[in-house]
Amino acid sequence: MWLLMLPALVPVLLFSVGPLLYGIGLAFTDARNTRVHETSFVGLENFTDLLADDDFWASFRIGAIWAVSVTVLQFLAALGLALLLNQNLRFRGVARVLAVVPWAMPPVVIGLMWKLVYHPDAGILNDLLGTDINWLADFSLALPAIIVVGVWTGMPQTTIVLLAGLQNVPKELYEAGEMDGAGRWRRFWNITLPQLRPVIVAITSLDFVWNINQFGLVYVLT
């Protein structure tokens, strides 16, 4: 069995596990970009310097706000969209295709597109609001503006997973709820959410990890 898995394991070991272990090893040395191969062991010195750096904690706080906010808002928006797309809409097929468009776009393209939307002089948003706000340069507005982009970017994959979960909920449960006199909200709270719980836990966990690692989008926007 291991021989059959070898062709797949070798690339993983070479391009994933190997660089990971090498990077962990470098963390305990005084390696720099200009001299990676001429290093000496420094133990935990790099980690103590990092924890004592105020810039690190400021970045950590902003990163945590970003990851948590995007994950929560992304889930709520995706759940609402999934519930809508699960209805018998006239153009449901077209709506489902349009809903996944952001998923097909590279992060750099998304960043450049939204940078134009937020442009202080020629941006669509300022034209609609009749303002000249520099959304990405104002510290108090930049983070909320980027969070909106993050939610829009990651919402399609969350919507698809939740929609698949909704379609797997047995119809008999809703019929039984209607017979017992349960309204739409009670059916959602007592039937839909409990049935979706495993899906919700899985997709929000994946979204959180994905949002933590979302560097390219934020870099392009800022």
Mean pLDDT: 86
Largest sheet: none
Radius of gyration: 23 Å
Report the order of strands and helices.
Answer: HHHHHHHHHH
| Quantity of strands, as a count | 0
Oligomeric nature of the chains: single chain
The CATH topology annotation of the largest domain reads as MetI-like fold
Distance between the terminal alpha carbons, to the nearest Å? 49 Å
Report the helical percentage. Answer: over 70%
CATH architecture of the largest domain: Orthogonal Bundle
How many domains is the backbone divided into?
2
Indicate the overall shape.
extended
Instruction: Give the low-confidence spans.
Output: none
Number of helical regions:
10
Find the structural class using helix and strand composition.
mainly alpha
DSSP strand content: under 5%
* CATH class value of the largest domain: Mainly Alpha
CATH superfamily label of the largest domain: MetI-like
Transmembrane segments: 64-85, 97-114, 134-153
Protein name: Sugar ABC transporter permease
Pfam families: BPD_transp_1 (PF00528)
Membrane topology: Multi-pass membrane protein
Could you explain the architecture of this structure?
With 222 residues, the protein is mainly alpha-helical. The protein has two domains: 1-52, no CATH class; 54-221, MetI-like fold. 73% of the residues lie in helices and 0% in strands. The chain is built from ten helices and no strands. Helix 3 runs antiparallel to helix 9 (184-212) and helix 7 packs across helix 9 (184-212). The longest helix has 32 residues, at 54-85. It is extended, with a radius of gyration of 23 Å. The relative contact order is 0.11. The model has no long low-confidence stretch (mean pLDDT 86).
